[in-house]
């Protein structure tokens, strides 16, 4: 029995007409466009597919580096200065401030919620007098005028898995495409020899409170598989199974791929499944990366001045500084979207002891990345995003002292920043109350943030859709979202 023939024999009437419903339309369009029309939908590198006339308008950013701090950084210890809280030390958070907010199971059993002021030093920096933690982030403070700080990010998700999923995919439920996949789908590749979307998982120095980081976060969801993130490993071969096995020459591998392509083309002609072409493209990309990836990951070729800029830890594979340097090398070679994750920002306890280590991991490297891109003339077209999935509470979880405290999850307000890529450098957007607990002015929901990022990339979030299960799916979902124009230069 031929399985392909059997499939066609059992095909339903509805499936048959569904497969053939666009034939007349394609024929009419082909007669109008002539040789410029491609029925198979293949596009040149850098071009959007025939499904979307993208970008919708001139983009300010061409590429993105997204630095996600997994666990939720404490906004009042880093970016949201609340000196008045020193007078509230160990006093209970007023019920009028909490206002019935639901709590996680980590603190819902506490009999009181004592205020824990930040133990760290803040200073004003930059032309707009940004208050930030200069004790732990002295290098980042040097590029304050490049940062576009949002103090009023907010989300409905209060636990890690739905919150990070929301921030990465626009939905608390897994299975949707992540933002990197959306950008890959909309704008395409700028380099035929490297993936459009690359993921780097950095290793923190301190590992007290590690959160799970799942490959679901860089899934293409219902988009074609070619738009999924390609994860680079921090040790050994950057990508598993990319190199030829022992005894297999490059010519032999080329011959094998040619034969495999012929088989897949036969399968495509018989079934018309677009994922078959995706599979062909992935095999071809893997073959090309055999030559491009070793050169890309050879950071030893960087001059010593690079390590003076990013810090000595950039020489250590897997460190955040190494990942930041690799991110620069990736976008320099045409990668469209680089996602970097750094774990251990879930400060339920020992916040005073762990924040210095976490900030040391990121401080000089972040400064180095911004400064390096600016020196290369790339910052204007490279959007850097820094932030987590939610913030932390002003009240302490567990024991409290002047030197140490813990903080629970807090979705009502938290801080993120952007740099470059058309964002408004030096901007300070939004205000929170004295307790960094509620938003007083200019809220920015996750949907609004996504809409703004797409705007910087030249895409209207309302028009940027993908038909799935009968609906025009969007990164920003079905609820109202708005572009925050004050964040755009």
Report the radius of gyration as a whole number of Å: 24 Å
Give the strand content: 15-25%
Q: What level of helicity do the residues show?
A: 25-40%
CATH topology of the largest domain: Alkaline Phosphatase, subunit A
Secondary-structure topology with pairs:
Blueprint (H helix, E strand, L loop, with lengths): L2 H7 L3 H8 L2 H11 L29 E7 L5 H4 L16 H4 L23 E4 L4 E4 L4 H4 L5 E8 L5 H10 L9 H9 L9 E6 L27 E3 L17 H22 L2 H23 L7 H7 L9 H13 L4 E6 L8 H25 L6 E6 L3 E6 L10 E4 L3 E6 L8 E2 L1 E2 L6 E3 L2 E2 H11 L9 E3 L2 E3 L16
Structure overview:
By secondary structure, this protein is an alpha/beta fold. It folds into two domains: 1-39, no CATH class; 48-238 and 297-487, Alkaline Phosphatase, subunit A (3-Layer(aba) Sandwich), CATH 3.40.720.10. Helix content is 32%, strand content 15%. The protein has helices spanning 3-9, 13-20, 23-33, 75-78, 95-98, 138-141, 160-169, 179-187, 250-271, 274-296, 304-310, 320-332, 351-375, 446-456; strands at residues 63-69, 122-125, 130-133, 147-154, 197-202, 230-232, 337-342, 382-387, 391-396, 407-410, 414-419, 428-429, 431-432, 439-441, 444-445, 466-468, 471-473. A hairpin with a 6-residue loop joins strand 13 and strand 14 (439-441). The model is unreliable at 23-51 (pLDDT under 50).
């Amino acid at each position: 029995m031929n399985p392909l023939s059997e499939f066609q024999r059992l095909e339903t009437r509805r499936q048959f007409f569904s497969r053939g419903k666009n034939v007349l339309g394609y024929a009419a369009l082909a007669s109008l466009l002539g040789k410029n029309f491609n029925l198979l939908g293949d596009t040149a590198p850098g071009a959007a597919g025939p499904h979307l006339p993208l970008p919708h308008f001139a983009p300010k950013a061409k590429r993105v580096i997204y630095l996600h701090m997994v666990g939720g950084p404490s906004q009042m210890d880093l970016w949201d200065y609340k000196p008045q809280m020193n007078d509230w030390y160990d006093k209970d958070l007023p019920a009028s401030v909490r206002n019935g907010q639901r709590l996680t199971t980590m603190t819902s059993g506490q009999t009181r919620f004592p205020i824990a002021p930040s133990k760290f030093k803040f200073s004003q920096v930059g032309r707009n007098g940004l208050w930030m933690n200069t004790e732990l982030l002295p290098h980042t403070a040097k590029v304050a005028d490049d940062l576009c700080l949002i103090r009023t990010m907010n989300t409905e998700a209060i636990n890690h898995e739905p919150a990070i999923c929301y921030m990465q995919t626009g939905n608390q439920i897994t299975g949707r495409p992540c933002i990197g996949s959306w950008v890959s789908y909309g704008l395409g590749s700028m380099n035929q020899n490297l993936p459009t979307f690359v993921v780097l998982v950095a290793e923190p120095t301190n590992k007290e409170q590690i959160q799970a980081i799942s490959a679901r976060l860089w899934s293409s969801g219902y988009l074609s598989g070619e738009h999924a993130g390609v994860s680079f490993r921090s040790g050994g071969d950057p990508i598993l199974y990319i190199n030829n096995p022992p005894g297999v020459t490059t010519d032999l591998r080329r011959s094998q791929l040619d034969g495999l392509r012929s088989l897949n083309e036969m399968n495509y002609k018989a079934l018309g499944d677009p994922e078959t072409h995706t599979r062909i493209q992935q095999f071809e990309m893997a073959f090309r990366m055999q030559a491009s990836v070793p050169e890309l990951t050879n950071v030893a070729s960087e001059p010593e001045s690079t390590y003076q800029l990013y810090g000595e830890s950039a020489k250590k594979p897997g460190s955040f500084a190494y990942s930041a340097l690799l991110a620069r090398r990736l976008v320099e070679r045409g990668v469209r979207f680089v996602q970097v994750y750094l774990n251990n920002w879930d400060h339920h306890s020992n916040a005073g002891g762990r924040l210095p280590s976490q900030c040391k991991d990121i401080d000089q490297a972040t400064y180095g990345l911004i400064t390096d891109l600016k020196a290369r003339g790339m910052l204007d077209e490279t959007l850097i995003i820094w932030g987590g999935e939610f913030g932390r509470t002003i009240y302490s979880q567990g024991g409290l002292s002047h030197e140490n405290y813990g903080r629970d999850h807090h979705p009502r307000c938290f801080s993120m920043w952007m740099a470059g890529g058309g964002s408004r450098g030096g901007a300070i957007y939004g205000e929170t109350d004295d307790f960094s607990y509620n938003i007083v002015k200019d809220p920015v929901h996750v949907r609004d943030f996504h809409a703004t990022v797409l705007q910087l990339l030249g895409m209207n979030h309302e028009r940027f859709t993908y038909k799935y299960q009968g609906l025009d799916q969007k990164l920003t979902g079905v609820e109202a979202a708005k572009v925050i124009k004050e964040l755009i230069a």
